[in-house]
Design brief:
Arginase, Chain A, eight-stranded parallel beta sheet, globular, alpha/beta
Length: 313
């Protein structure tokens, strides 16, 4: 298939500024390696709303939610259009809230097909405005995609306007959930709150931890994941770079967590999933060069993964 790069330089869903520069950092990594990757592939830029970080009035339970909704809608439109045109979209995003837009776009393009999601991340991203301790929406995309409010663990009282925007988030692309919890599989998640653990347990979401991956074997774990998604027509892979070991790679991401995956493990996971021919879209997100303690190491590593997996699409 022909790859189309969708560049979404938005970081308004994050708690730390700078991931909007992650795409440029990846491109610089390619240039420094003498790799013409970004000249070989078509691309599309998505308009952003990054200036909204200067708004004085903010919602503490879902920060900038009205603008995140708009941004996710833009990403959804871009993904749906490119899938309809026969492209394989690789979405390069700032913060992870945009993944809701990507999943919504896939469902908008294929409303009658069943979607499976592989979430390679250090975090569960299962909060809602009712449960989030930070109000950062990059911790909410999966809850929105599955329509999970998790009211059993409610600690916040979001107002009517926030609830209305949250409802809009859950209905981007097509009305209602984009996937079933049985069709979500985590790889590398190791940092989450009690409310997210409750949501995982209640919805029977499969989490393959780093230590399990290494103990049982990567091939065994990925084949199990493929088996769980056997009834899915399509698979979306979301790769947050904080899934990788920050001590081994760098701290060039907004929420680094130690004891994570290694780059070769990420590449093997994605390579094995690509063999199924069900993968229709891949997203890279949360590269923050402003926080990188090793120059541009995180972006260089992300580009290594990007260049490698692109050859197998």
């Amino acid at each position: 298939m022909t790859i189309k790069i969708i560049k979404n330089r938005s970081d308004i869903g994050a708690g730390t500024r700078g991931s909007d520069m992650g795409i440029d950092a990846i491109e610089i990594a390619a240039i420094n390696q003498g790799n013409d990757y970004f000249h070989r592939h078509l691309f599309q830029d998505v308009v952003t709303h990054n200036e909204t970080i200067y708004n004085k009035f903010n919602n503490n339970f879902a920060k900038r939610i009205e603008h995140v909704v708009e941004q996710c809608q833009r990403v959804s439109n871009a993904v749906a259009e490119n899938l309809a045109e026969g492209f394989f979209p690789i979405v390069l995003s700032g913060d992870h809230s945009s993944a809701l837009g990507t999943m919504s776009g896939i469902k908008a393009a294929y409303p009658n097909k069943t979607l499976g999601v592989i979430w390679i991340d250090a975090h569960a991203d299962l909060h809602s405005p009712y449960t989030s301790p930070s109000g950062n929406i990059h911790g909410m995309p999966l809850a929105a995609a599955m329509g999970i409010d998790n009211l059993d663990c409610q600690i916040n009282e979001p107002g009517e306007i926030t609830v209305s925007h949250w409802s809009s988030m859950k209905n981007i692309g097509v009305a209602g959930p984009k996937l079933s919890s049985n069709h979500l599989i985590y790889f590398g998640v190791r940092d989450f709150e009690e409310a997210e653990q409750y949501a995982m347990d209640k919805n029977n979401i499969r989490l393959i931890k780093v230590e399990e991956l290494r103990y049982r074997g990567l091939d065994v774990c990925v084949k199990e994941a493929i088996g769980k998604l056997l009834n899915c027509d399509l698979v979306y892979i979301s790769f947050d770079v904080d899934s990788m070991d920050c001590d081994n790679i760098s701290y060039g991401t907004g929420t680094p967590v130690p004891h994570g995956l290694l780059p070769n493990e990420v590449m093997q996971i994605i390579d094995t999933l690509l063999v199924t021919k069900k993968v229709c879209c891949i997203e890279f997100t949360e590269i923050n060069p402003l926080l990188d303690n090793k120059g541009n190491k995180m972006a260089e590593t992300a580009f290594q993964v990007l260049d490698h997996i692109s050859s197998n699409i």
